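Worked Example 4.2. Consider the chain below.
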Amino acid sequence: MIGHRFDKYDPREDGKSRFEQMLNLFMQLLSYTNGDATEALQWMNELDKKYQLTDDTYGMGDFIDELKQKGYLSDNNQNGEIKITPKTEQGIRKRSLEEIFGKLKKSKQGNHHSFKPGQGDELNPETKPFQFGDTLEQIDFTESIRNAQINHGIDAFRMQEDDLQIRETDFKAQTSTVLMIDISHSMILYGEDRITPAKKVAMALSELITTKYPKDTLDIVVFGNDAWTVEIKDLPYLQVGPYHTNTVAGLQLAMDLLRRRKNPNKQIFMITDGKPTCLKIGNRYYKNSFGIDRRIFSRCLNLAAQCKKLKIPITTFMIASDPYLQKFVSEFTETNQGKAFFASLDKLGAFIFRDFESGKRKTVY
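Applying the procedure from the previous section yields the following structure tokens:
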């Protein structure tokens, strides 16, 4: 009889093929290289030298060939340039979603959802006695028949109004969201990479909305000296520029986008690491990086108040903990009656996803 055979445990062998293991690392590196496949592969070569990712049976050349065969890379035969494909772009978004949302599903800490029942599109595990006004579609017949059997017996089975149980549902509100991402120079200043976590959140949120909430809309606005929109497919390539922080331009563009949306529920998420330092007045940029400029600050507060009148809450995620920034964030949030979080880089995704998911459910009367 053949017994069990025990081999030395290799932590790299987790049921995945060598290609799948290396693909996961390659996708991670693409987030840091702004979608530059050549740079990501150079990094992988360096990691291979140090950690022996490959061996005599499967080398880096085999991995690159397989990336091309499976549609993750395309090369230009004329100049030899290698680029990632739309399949890879979607793969990065999916991995970002799994990385952020997977952690949330494993841990319930800090999750303060308050689901209020009403007619909607997702079943609620709770039931309640039938009341006048409840519809036939809401009756849970399994529980109702069970009640009738208990109350009247099987031999003389009958069902009365008191036996009926209603299965409630939760309504998922359709929402239009604008995600604002600060791409000013400070997002990579002082040796701390703040733009990569922001990009990962944007990619994960876009993947969540397009797959789980297809009726929702998501617009992504980046702001530096100016503000402009980027497509979901452009997110892996997003880079920080030599910019100041024109929060006013970002808010104005976000408001313009939301005015065009027909969904009644609208919101703005803003990821930034600093105070607003720039305005565009005519063709001239008004800049002040020293402290909080009253002229710029007043414009920001005016826009926060306008958003409040339009019932557009702004949730600010400040990924910096400088004490003097708290004054700006506090006054801005109070004016809009929105929310603010001082989020560390590793917790940024959890903050945003919990806030987004909690806002998906509304009471329906």
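The first strand starts at residue 73 and ends at 75. The first helix runs from residue 18 to 32. Compare this with Example 4.1 before moving on.
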